[in-house]
Every structure is written in C-alpha cells, then in structure tokens.
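Annex B. Sample input.
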Amino acid sequence: MTAFEINGASAADMALIRDWADEEGWNPGDSDRFAFAVADPGGFLVGRLGGEPVACVSAVRYGAGFGFIGFYIARPEVRGRGYGIQLWRPGMERLDGRLVGLDGVVEQQDNYRKSGFRSAWNNVRHEGVPRAAADPARGSGSGAGAGLEIVDVSTLPFGQLAAYDRRFFPAPRDAFLAAWVGLPGRTGLAAVRDGRIEGLGVIRPCSGASRIGPLYAASPAVAEALLLRLAEHAPDGMVAVDVPDAHPAATALSARLGLTPTFEAARMYTGREPDVDLTGVYGVTSLELG
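Annex B, continued. Sample output.
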C-alpha cells in the first residue's frame, strides 16, 4: 500500500498550493503565498502519496487565541479516499484551544458543521469594472467629504496601520500585514482625514480579476473613493471584492458600482463570532487566511 505522509509545506509547495487554488476557481493572488508564509511558517501542511503532493490545508495561528483554516484541497484524482480528513485532523489539532474561523465553499459546509463550525455570514465575491456612482456629487469618491486624502500606505507609520487593521480582525497579525501591503506588484492605499485613518484598501494581481482586500472604510463614500482609486491599478479594470453579506451597505455599494456576485463562501467559527467592527468591512482580506 502506498504510504501517505504529512509534512510542512516548502516554498515549492506554497507555489503548488497557489496553483491548485487557482484550478479550483478561487483566483488567489499571484504573490499571496509570500505574505501567507510569514503569517505562520508552520501553518501549511501537505499530504504526499508515494512522495507526490496530493492534498493540502492551512492552519494558521494568530496571537494567543485565534486560528484560521484554509486551502483545504484534495486533488480530484484522490478525492473520496480519506486523504483530506487525514490532513484536516492535524490542522485542527494545531489550533486546539483557539477560536477557529474559515471560509467554507458551499459543497463543504455540511462537513464543517460536523466538525463544530457554525455559520456567521457569507462572503460574496463581487466582480466587474467599477463605475462611479451616478450622483455627480459623489463621482470618483468626492462624496467622501472635505479633507479626505488618499495616500500610499507606505507613507504612514506602520504602528498606526496595524492598530487600524486590529479593529477589523480578531488578533494581531503585524508580520502578515507588513508583507501583504508591501509586496511588489500590489498597491495599498489609505484614506486619511486630519491625521486619522478612515479607510484602507489593497489591490493585488491574480490570474483573473485583480482582487481588492482588505477594504475597510468609515462610510460607503470612503469605501467608494478607495475602491475607485484602487481599480485604476487593475490592468484591465476588472476587480473582485469579497463582501460580507452581514454588512448591507457594503453589498449595496458593490451593486451601485456595477459589480456582480460570482462566488460565495460561508464565514464559519467554532464558537462565538469575534468582536470586530464588521460595519467597517467592505471587503475581507483573504478567504484563505481571514
């Protein structure tokens, strides 16, 4: 019988996992894996059958009490043979004692419920070429109000940026955030008024539509201003944003800008939803790492 072995992911494995996710239609960022690796270097597991990679999962630790499961993939040729669950168990063991979150694709949600996860909301991907709102007073984000500046995140103190991100995420993730906003080929912008951050957005290249995430903002108008500016950096104008449907204003903004729902995943947790400011989340950072 061919041996099935589980190991930590190498750099080559991380590139392979990205390609598998792309084949699943998830449209991962071209360089996401570099930020993922620094988030938790031991958090990516690969299952090998006869030495060949056939399955993967990520189980990333954040801070002392939070974890996130992602990249749960078994290759089509080995599905139904139990290799996925053999990876799932050590992944969950790695996060034992923590509140654990994930974004579950529709076909796996019943299995996640059997493992103790409960649905909190759906993250719905909206795609398209955004158009400015019809109201001329809001065109190109001018409805965000007087005194708002859109600046490159590299001009802000990183501590201020990390403190802002912490309002919307259950645990500190400074190493990940520093890589996420600063990797070559992507653009990070912040909306600033009177020295205070009122919004943050990052756009990154992908095989398909350029992904925007996170997209945080103090109001729909600020979110619109950021999204339209970020979309200028999409090679063909096409963008994709994963919008929490528990935030109706975010869904309404995506519709108003002409973006169309194309994909959804359920945000699920093993316990009570974390205390984050969901009213400021117009697009989640990543379906793989939260």
